[in-house]
Please model this.
Amino acid sequence: MTKYEEKIYNIINTSTEHLTVEQIYAELKKEYPKVVLATVYNNVNKLWKARLIRKVSIENMSDRYDRIVKHDHLICQRCSKLTDISFEDLTASLREQMGEEFLSYDLKVFYICPECREREKNRKHT
Amino acid sequence: MTKYEEKIYNIINTSTEHLTVEQIYAELKKEYPKVVLATVYNNVNKLWKARLIRKVSIENMSDRYDRIVKHDHLICQRCSKLTDISFEDLTASLREQMGEEFLSYDLKVFYICPECREREKNRKHT
DNA sequence: TAAAAAAATTAGAATAATTCTAAAAATGAG
DNA sequence: CTCATTTTTAGAATTATTCTAATTTTTTTA
Model:
C-alpha cells in the first residue's frame, strides 16, 4: 500500500459519514497539501477493486465511499440523508431462493427522517 | 402528459431492458428526429419525480430507467449485466423492524451470470 | 376565435464528475 | 547505485447533467 492509498483507506474507515471523492480529497489535503484529485480517484478505485472499501450509489447523488463492514443503508426520501443501519441478514434466505450463484446483496431502505417528518408536520398546521 | 413525456414513458414501460438516457434518446429520435437530449432529461426527471418510472443507480454505470412495477435486480459482478428478478417481499419484515417510518426498499443481488461462470471455468482448464 | 398567459422544447453554454495521457517523481530489486 | 516498475502529477479530454434564455406549443379566457 502506498502512503496515499493507506491514508485514504483510513479516512474512509474512521469516518462515520459516507464520503464523496471531493470530501476525501479535502481531508487528504490537510496532511498532503500537494495531492491532486486524480490521485484520489486512482486510489479509491484501487481500494474498491480490491474490495477494501464499499461504493454507495444513490440516485441523484454522487458516489460515496464507505467501510466494508456489512450493513444496510437508510435513506430519507426528502433530504437524502444517508444513515447506516443493520437489518436482519438476508443471506440465508437469498441463498435459499437462488442457490449457490448468490454472492452478496445491497439493501437500501427509504423512509422520512425525524427532522423532515417534523418539518412537514409543522407545515401542515400553518 | 405531453407527447414526449408519454412517448418516453412508453419506451421505458415496453422495454425489457434498463435504458440509459442515451438509449431513450436514440429510440425517441426514430419517431421525432428533431428532439433534443435535454428534453429527455427533463421528461425522465419529471416522470421519476411523479413516481411513474424508477431510476436504477449501480456503481460505475450511468443511471438506468425502469418500469415502476416492484421487482428486485440481479447484477453480474463480472459483466455488470442487469436482470429483473423478484425475491420474497421484505415489506412486512422491514416494517416490523423499523415501524411506520418505513416507505420502500431497493434490493440488489450480486452473482456471476451463467455466461461469465462458463467463461471462467474454461479459462481455468487451459 | 384571437390575444394573452403558461408550459414545454430547443440550442447551446456551463458545470460537474470522471477518465486519460504523458511526463515526472518515488520506490524497489539486483 | 542503476535500471525497471509503479505511482503521482498536471492538465487535457470526455462524459453526464444542468441551466439559461429564446422560441414554439398549448391552454386559457375575454
